Structure formats: C-alpha cells, structure tokens
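User: quick one - fold this with calcium ion bound?
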Amino acid sequence: MKSKLSFLALAIFFIVSSCQSNDTGTKPNVIIFLVDDMGWQDTSVPFWTQQTAFNRLYQTPNMERLAREGMKFTQAYACSVCSPTRVSLMTGMNAARHRVTNWTLRKDTQSVGDDNLLEQPKWNMNGMSPVEGIDNTALATPLPQLFKNAGYKTIHTGKAHLGAMETPASDPLTLGFDVNIAGHAAGAPGSYYGKNSFGNDNPQRTTWAVPGLEKYYGEDIYLSEALTLEAIDAVTSANEENQPFFLYMAHYAVHTPIQGDDRFLQKYIDQGIDSTEAKYASMVEGMDKSLGDIMNFLEQKNLDDNTIILFMSDNGGLSAVARGGERHTHNLPLSSGKGSAREGGIREPMIVKWPKKVRPNSMTDSYVIIEDFFPSVLEMAGIDGYKTVQEIDGISFVPILEGKDVANTRPLFWHYPNRWGPNGPGIGSTSAVRLGDWKLIYYHANRHFELFNLEADIGESQNLADTYPEELNKLAQILTDYLLEVDAQMPIDKSTGELVEYPAEILK
Ligand code: CA
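Assistant: Sure. Structure tokens for the protein plus calcium ion:
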C-alpha cells in the first residue's frame, strides 16, 4: 500500500513538475531594458548610414553584442520627455489620447509653468491610473497587469515616473508588478552614489531620494550596478519558482545629475574630452555593463534562448545645457534634443533580440513609435484575447521582427501642448506628424509650420513648408483629423483666451 502511495505521489510530482517546466519552456521571458534620456548617438552602435564621431567616443560593447544577436531599428521613436513615453509604453496609447503630455511629479500640480503666450490645457498631470476616480489621470489596464494575469512574475526595477506623488500609480505595485525595486513618482535620482545613499543622505531633497536599496547605503557602488544586482536576484527567484518573468529594467541612468561612474570615468578623461561629457560617457558605459551582466546571467542559467530583450530610450539626449551644468551630449546629426519635436528629441536607439525569431545582426528602417511596444510584447509572449479599458493606438511590430517588408505608410503622431527646457529648435508647445519621409511640426504659440524631408535632410535644416504646399496641407489635415479623433487638448492663446486652432484650420 505504502509503495503504491509513494508511486502515486511520485507520478503526481512528475506530472506537476513537467507541466511547470513546459509552462516556462513555452512562455518566453521578456525584458524591456529602458534607458532614461539616452540619445540616438550616445552609443558605439551606429544607427545611421555611417559611423559618427559619437559612435567612436561612446563605448557600449554590450549594445553591440545585442545588435549582433538581434535587430536594430534605425527609426524608433518616443515622446520628447519622460512621463508621456512611459505612460504610452505601459498603456499602448498615444500621448494625444492619454493626455499625460508632460512629465509628472506632484499631485494636481504643473511640473512646468505656462509660458508668456500660452496657457497649458488641464492635462493629466497626475499620470496614469489603474483605478477609476483619481483626478487628472489616464485610466488604463497596465501592461504588467496583463503579464501578471498570464502567469508571469512581473518585476519593476529602477525609474517608474508613471504617476504623481500620493496617487496609486506612484507605486508600481498598483500597476501589476509583483516586485518593485527603487521605483516611485520622481523621474531622477537624488544621487547615483551608494556612498550618498542614492540621495537619502540629503534631507533637503527627499523627493528625489531613490526608495529602497537600503543595503547599499554608504557603500561604494553606482546606482546602475545596485539595480542590476537586485534585478538579477528577482529574476533568480522567479526562475527558481519556475515562473516566466517580465522584467522592466528601467535605469535612472543616463538622466541628470551627471555624476561620473568611476568604473569607467578615467579612460574618457584620458581622451581629453570635456569633463562633463566624460562623466556622461562613463554613465552610458555603466548602463551598458548592466545590459551585459544581465545577458551573461541569462547565458549562465540557460535562459538566453527563451528570453526576449527589447532595448529602448525614453526620449532624446539632453543636448541643451542642463541646469547648473554643462552640455553633455549632442545627438548630431540630428537637430536639438530632449523636449524638442525635432528628431534629436524623439528618435531613439532601439534593438530587439528574439531568439529563433529575429534574424541575428539584422536591421530595419521601418519606423515604430513607443506605444507600439504594448501590443508587440504581448504578441511576442503569446498573450492574446486580453481586454483593456483603454483604446490601443500602438501597432504590433512583430511583422517587422519577422523580416516582413513593412513600408512606412502609416502616420506617426506627437502632441505636446506643454513645454520643457530651454529655447531651441522644436522646443515648446507643438504637434507633429510623420508620414513616409515627410515630417510636419506645428508650433502652437505662433501657428508656425516646419516641413522636412527626413530622407534628404535628417538634420531638419531646410524648412520646405513654402516649397511643398501640397505636402504641407496633406500632413496638416492628417494631423488635424487625428487630434480631433482622440479629442486632443490644445493650449489656450493668452492674447485671445481662445484655444489654439488645429493645424488645418490655420491653412484654410
Ligand atoms: Ca527621460
């Protein structure tokens, strides 16, 4: 009898464990590796037709390795500042629809004041929300919740910046994450240094102090490294529990404050470049080391063949002079940087590794935009039939990953009825559309248009609005139709008290 029972127990054990291992064997693990404020040229991986001086300056060997194992996207877009991009990623909505059009921080409070000419609309300054009834939020079924519902262990690591302080989404655990490592409402770290307890040693700046990570306080460790160690710990636990994992690895790097990563700083100083740029380059390489450490870990655990990695940045490099600092990046040949509707503000380094699906060392010029990640990663994970309270704007880029020839025939949209940053090209309250090689920027303050042909003029130096009136009118109408469709908010012209007109109305 006893032996029969033992046999039964053993049989059940094998059935259960084989189900579990099948489960993890068929469901791929997914890592979204999101860098903060990293520009399109801040890497040794060339994303343009030629290698630039910046590609030679920055050293990102692990991005090179990821590109060798995956597909490089030369025309991947985000919004021009943090929270709009992050909310689009987590909800699949375009910023014009979700209305978290600027970066968030304090509840019911503008993060940036109005300018002289325009009054900002009542945008969703509290960010996104997984629950109804929170003022000034975009209600949505969050991406990690869908992974969790599908049986994934969901791990948030690093910068969240998805909801204002004292609102639910300031805590990633409300968004379907099982684990939150160091994420909260703020969009920058008080300090990158463990010896400064990541900003927790400064009672004047508690808003920016990185939460958690107490075991590293006082230690000589850089934030990017601490986050990586913690993320690997969390993935190890998921693996030991035979659970597939969704890791949102959202580095605080390479956002300001520009604080050198001492593991890599000296070799950049030795090159004789500006000290702020050297510090920035060391932060970029520290972030790249994190990518390499995670890839090494996956290989050691034999998880690399069943793990998808998507690399992305949330907006362009901060090419203007940061407050109290010096210029640290450039984005050239692109124009302008963070906060701008020009390419320097929105075009990002993107790489996707999808073992056995994506051809290694491949490249695509098909364009994509940040909200496309939402349907894409769910499709890659085989999660279908899901329901969301929000309407999804993103379109899956799986066909591109499968090597299909996807022409750039859909319009992409940006809408930013706010402003951030110093003056410069593309800075300020704008709407924009790209279709094929053409791009139109509409400046709300003076109703000015810029029309560029990006194929001929990637630096956006030749405004062709007067030369190609048909293209101008066509794009203005497409942009207007979309803004109307999603009920996009326009700023108010202070001189008249009226809403700024949609672009096609100006051209009538
Ligand atoms: Ca950012």
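One thing worth noting: Confidence is low (pLDDT under 50) at residues 1-5, 7-24.
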